[in-house]
Each structure stands twice: as structure tokens, then as C-alpha cells.
Amino acid sequence: MGLLSGGQRQALTLLLATLYPPKLLMLDEHTAALDPGSAERIMALTKDIVRENNISCLMVTHNMRQALDTGSRTLIMNAGKIAADISGAERDGMDVGKLTDLFRNTAGTEYANDRMILSS
Fold first, then answer.
1. What is the pTM of this model?
2. Cβ(102)–Cβ(76) under 8 Å?
3. What is the pLDDT of residues 41-89, one digit of tens each?
4. CA dist., res. 34 & res. 86, Å (int)
């Protein structure tokens, strides 16, 4: 493992976690420490595994583009509580700017840091 890149380690970890497909796959920032190219490949692998094995997946991310490009439902959390639950037609018309505005309006606060804004 020590000789693998971060992306290779994430891919291997994802493959091991789904070798025997779970009913629910929980992913916590599984692309956060990766360069953009590796993150894109890991997301493609994630989507393929989830689709091919019909796995329900809960993915935590600060990357709003990934949140909108993946899955069918987006939850915005603030201070440990659900601030917004977006699905269906509302989510289909959502973009990063609208998601940012929704967070600001529902959470009643500005971003604590620019990490979330820069991830778009």
C-alpha cells in the first residue's frame, strides 16, 4: 500500500469495500485529498460500482459539483442538522450557484471558510 498513489489507494479501498456488495455504501470525503484527475477517476469508478451492483450510497462531500453530479438526492447539513433536502425537479434545475445560495439562505450564515466555494 505504501507504494501506491493516493488515487490508487482510494480505488483499492473502494474495490475492497464493495468486493462483497453492501446494501449501503457510506463514503466520507473519499476524493478530498486527491488531485482533480484522480478524483474524477475515483468518482467514475464509484458511479460504476454503485450502478452495476445496485447499491444505495451515502456520500459526504464538500465538493458541490460532485454532490450535484452524483446521485438523486442532496442534503445540505449545517451544525449537524439537515438545512435542506433537495430531490426531484428542484434538484434537476440546481447548479453550484443555486446550491450555494440555498445553503446561505437555509443555514442563515455565510461560509466559515472558502473551501466550499472554491470546490465548485
1. 0.76
2. yes
3. 889 999 999 999 999 999 998 888 888 888 889 998 888 888 889 999 9
4. 27
pLDDT of residue 119: 47
- Dist. CA 99–CA 67, nearest whole Å: 10
Cell of 98: 443555486
Ranges of each domain in the chain: 1-60, 73-120
Neighbours of 44 (CB within 10 A): 10
Residue 105 grid cell: 439562505
pLDDT of residue 34: 84
Contact assessment for residue 27 and residue 45, using Cβ atoms and an 8 Å cutoff: no
Q: What distance in Å separates the CA atoms of residue 46 and residue 66, rounded to the nearest whole number?
A: 12
Q: Which helix (H) or strand (E) holds 119?
A: none
Q: Taking 70 as the threshold, does the pLDDT of residue 111 lie above it?
A: no
Give the distance, in angstroms, between the CA of residue 20 and the centroid of all CA atoms in the same chain: 22
CB 118 within 8 A of CB 105: no
Confirm if 7 and 41 have CB atoms less than 8 A apart.
Answer: yes
